[in-house]
Amino acid sequence: MGSNDVMAPLAAVPVFLDLRTASANPADELRASLAADAPFIAPKFFYDALGSRLFEAICELPEYPLTRAERRLFERHGDEIATRAGIDRPLVDLGAGNCAKAEQLFGVLAPSQYVAVDIAADFLRERLGELALRHPGLPVVGLAQDFTAALALPDVVQPGPRTVFYPGSSIGNFAPPAALAFLERTREACGRGGCLVLGADLVRDKRALDLAYDDPLGVTAAFNLNVLRNVNRCIDADFDVADWRHVAFFDSVTARIEMHVEARCDVAVRWNGGGRRFRATDRIHTENSYKYTLPGLRALLQRAGFGDTKVWTDEEGGFAVAVAAV
Ligand SMILES: C[S@@+](CC[C@H](N)C(=O)[O-])C[C@H]1O[C@@H](n2cnc3c(N)ncnc32)[C@H](O)[C@@H]1O
Q: Kind and range of the H or E element at 90?
């Protein structure tokens, strides 16, 4: 490099801990869920390198308004969110993904530390490196962790009161009893005087919900089917994506979106330690995404032990952001 060349800034390396193997054995979990009477793949397996990027693409789709609605709610109510949550506290982002939503709130929350938790270790590490460059004064911690197995915050995370951030309606991936248990653990992580900032998708028109999970470009279909490639890597399986199709629909009785992959023909699949035959039209359940009513959301937070709660909705009433105090 010549003396006049401009050096790119060195990436500030945030503290990054990979805690995934401490809490779960994904291969055993997959083998058991694929062998079950009603086979399923847990949604956390969507998020390999391609899956994480496909999720970012889904957020750009006109049929998937959740991300834009949440952004507008944070823009509009950021100051009040900060008044309720408090400033200068550790901000713990659960399922941080590309960290963009939390970063939007840095200006109002002025966090004392940013802690991003996600199962997608490589994607998180990459995005955190970029984020740390944009916020050189902010202590940044990355935790690669499966928070459905445990929500363990190591000592490097500043003590409470903390603001725990859980946007994107990821709470909807849990069936109601599991959502309650998860929120109880989250309340513990907040500590006394802390709070939860939660984003949730609300029950709305079935046609709109169906389209949000089955868009005409097929981006969500690619996201769903890509899970089979991740399974192939995790347990050395031989799923051929071409043998499967994407199925997604809103079920108004259970108030949830269901996503499945459905066999297009009879197929036999092998994996390390087992295998299974699927008949044409057999399905593997890949995701539930429960939608909430406002009273249902408030009741859930209350049952999980949260106190004073403020909820904002977007103009169409399809999305909610709640700030719930411990
Ligand atoms: C629907 S995306 C939401 C991303 C971002 N928070 C947003 O709202 O746009 C879910 C994120 O949670 C992560 N995730 C899913 N299951 C997880 C688990 N069991 N433990 C930790 N992270 C998980 C995924 O890797 C992904 O980044």
A: strand 90-94
Q: Which atom of ligand 1 is nearest to the CA of 93?
A: 6
- Give 251 Cα–ligand 1 centroid separation in angstroms: 23
Q: State in Å: Cα 95 to ligand 1 middle.
A: 3
Q: 135-160, pLDDT tens digit by residue?
A: 999 999 999 999 987 788 999 999 98
Decide whether any atom of ligand 1 lies within 6 Å of the 173 Cβ.
Answer: no
Q: At what angle do helices 294-303 and 176-190 cross, to 10 degrees?
A: 60
User: Phi, psi at residue 166, to the nearest 5°?
Assistant: -140, 80
- How many angstroms does the Cα of residue 149 sit away from the middle of ligand 1? 14
In angstroms, the CA 235 to CA 273 distance is 8
Q: Which pLDDT tens digit goes with each residue over 205-229?
A: 999 999 999 999 999 999 999 999 9
Question: Cβ distance 291 to 203 under 8 Å?
Answer: yes
* CA atoms of 40 and 62, how far apart (whole Å): 29
Q: Ligand 1 in contact with 171 (CB < 6 A)?
A: no
pLDDT tens digits for range 282-322: 999 999 999 999 999 999 999 999 999 999 999 888 999 99
